[in-house]
Amino acid sequence: MPDGWAERWNLRLRFFLFFALILLGTSASIAGAMIYLAAAAPQVPVNALVLGGGVALFASAGLTLWVWLKFDDHVAQPLMKLGAELRASVHAGTPREIPQDTGRYLGLLAPAVREAAVALLEARADVEEMVAVATAEADRQKGQLEAVLRDLQQGVVICTLDHKVLLYNRFAHHLLDQGRSGPLGLERRLTGLVAGQPLRHSLERLTRRFSSGRYRSHKDGLAAQFIGTTACGHESLRGRMSLILGEEEREAIGYVVTFDKVTDELAAGIWRDRLLQDVTRDMRQRVATLSLSGEVLLRKAPMDDAARERLRETVDVETRALGERLDRLDQVAGDLLAGAWPMTEVYSSTLMDCIAARRSEGRELSAVVMGDPLWLSCDSATVVDLVDRMMNRISVWAQVRDFRLSTSRREGTAYLDLLWAGEPVPEPVLEGWLDEPLEEALGAMTGRDVLSRHKTDMWSDILGGGQARLRLPLAVAVEHQDRPMKSTAPLAPRPEFYDFDLFARPTPSTIGETLLRNLSYVVFDTETTGLEPSRGDDLVSVAGVRIVNDRVLRGEIFDGLVNPGRPIPPASSRIHGITDDMVAEADPVEQVLPRFYAFIGDSVLVAHNAAFDMTFLSKYQERTGLRFEQPVLDTVLLAGHIFGASESLTLDALAERFGIVIPVEDRHTALGDALATAEVLRKLIALLTPLGVVTLSDAIEVSNRQVALRRRQRRY
């Protein structure tokens, strides 16, 4: 493997040796001349010859050294810079032009290199434009598929055979964000988020069915259902696993799992079964008592008045108890029927707007929406059908065309009111309307059925001022929150929820042999109260973003504030913008770091000036019990290997070199710097490959060389 460090210094070393050879030749010539003069002119004093020769030698050495320094500064180093800039343009696709002052003493070479770089960038832009046009239709179709998966109200996850996630949708991300291995993400193991045994058992069943060929005649083919739980045990899941075959269907390469949350459904089923068992046992005892009493009466056995009275009381008590039990069963049956009907959360203003625009019978009716908006829990489609039917019937019965729709709330119940000028609808008339089928509802459902499904009623009464009202009580949505589903971090508009290239990735024997472009990284940054952890400075923020398959996953980020338990110095707040008020309600480091550790998993850690950030993470290992022993890469050291330690290697300088824009508001924030560092890392990996740095072991080796070089430089 070529040695990149030797490659960079070979050019300057060759020039140095060239000038050293000139100096050696000059010195030899001066020495030869002195020897010749000493032999040819013995009358010349030796001291004079030595003095003259020494002066000539030192003058030649000084002149040669000065010329070499100028040559190195004006030729050798500019050539290296031009080479690095051109290589960056070729391999990293940097959009910036080579600076004009680079290689100004190289004549036509520097302009020629700049023109070549510009031409290369223009050609690349043309190619990218053609590729973008050619793939626009594919992207459109892919976007439609992503939209379907993203908004599907069922969890969808695709995994490799070793349970590494290749695709997931938003519902799965929401439901499986409490696993012991961190939130759901690409290349994470699904068995860390869902109870592993049902998954492994289902996969074993399917692989055996496939290998035996039984799937061709099996009614479920290559699919199997299972019941499981999330890793934390908080949710019950009903899933279906389907095996994914390779292109020629000769081997299984992964599986897809779809699942629903059935926690409430299973709990309701258990409650129902227990209730039925209790009621059945109790009714059996009471029926036995009544049967025995009946036998006594049928035998007409002689008994005194007291015994006859006790028997009558027994029959009365047991009969009432049976009646109460039957009433309870009827109530439970109604509750189960209502609970089985799907209810959704709907905004009352939306519901009333739908009613006002319904006009199912073509009448020109006017409905003004009023009242404070509420979140309701109901089957909005059947409620709209019911109220629309009542509005049409009232319009004919009361000869009115103008209505008002209003919602109000009292305690835990919401009321949907239909108001009009006139008399209230008599109860018998309203009952008749409720018994009519709703044509566009499910099956032959009537208005009465809709009320039963919602466990409610409907009545009409009179208001003051000649106004009448039809009132429909509805349930208020419980704990509704009008915001996106909970997540550890906000998701990007189109987050990266899939990567099918991971199917074809070979598995190396060790992580050190893994290609840099195939590694999973967590690029992170920290913000602190100061720069000296040994003197009490603490974390105030930590953020990270994942890179999988050379893609920055902006939908998989970690961003957490940390309460340091001490005031943040104003000087530090001016840099990162985090104040005491912002961290007052934040979690302490003992709670934040375990979540970050779970987010990292078995990924490689990357940071810009990683030694600083790792020092802060290591500071808390005794308090948290965590050991951050993952491999660590430093973008400063990697950039130093590519561009040389003499170049500016700050994050801003590298971002400018690679054309990466860091928004001003994101600079010196943990998440903003982590995202910028992630983009820098991708560019560096592209530049390391032609230098022979292709695996993690290679990157660690050249990083260690950079560390050793910097230590030697500090000595001088």
TrEMBL record:
Gene Ontology molecular function: any one: DNA-directed DNA polymerase activity
Keyword Transmembrane: yes
Domain Exonuclease stretches: 520-690
Gene3D superfamilies: Ribonuclease H-like superfamily/Ribonuclease H (3.30.420.10)
Membrane-spanning intervals of the chain: 15-39, 46-69
GO biological process, one term: DNA replication proofreading
SUPFAM superfamilies from the UniProt entry: Ribonuclease H-like
Alphabetical UniProt keywords: Exonuclease, Hydrolase, Membrane, Nuclease, Transmembrane, Transmembrane helix
EC nos: 2.7.7.7
Source organism, top-level taxon: Bacteria
Catalytic reaction annotation: DNA(n) + a 2'-deoxyribonucleoside 5'-triphosphate = DNA(n+1) + diphosphate
InterPro entries per UniProt: DnaQ, Ribonucl_H, RNaseH-like_sf, RNaseH_sf
CDD domains per UniProt: DEDDh (cd06127)
GO CC annotation terms, alphabetical: cytosol
PANTHER family per UniProt: DNA POLYMERASE III SUBUNIT EPSILON (PTHR30231)
Quaternary organization: DNA polymerase III contains a core (composed of alpha, epsilon and theta chains) that associates with a tau subunit. This core dimerizes to form the POLIII' complex. PolIII' associates with the gamma complex (composed of gamma, delta, delta', psi and chi chains) and with the beta chain to form the complete DNA polymerase III complex.
Job of this protein: DNA polymerase III is a complex, multichain enzyme responsible for most of the replicative synthesis in bacteria. The epsilon subunit contain the editing function and is a proofreading 3'-5' exonuclease.
Protein name in the entry: DNA-directed DNA polymerase
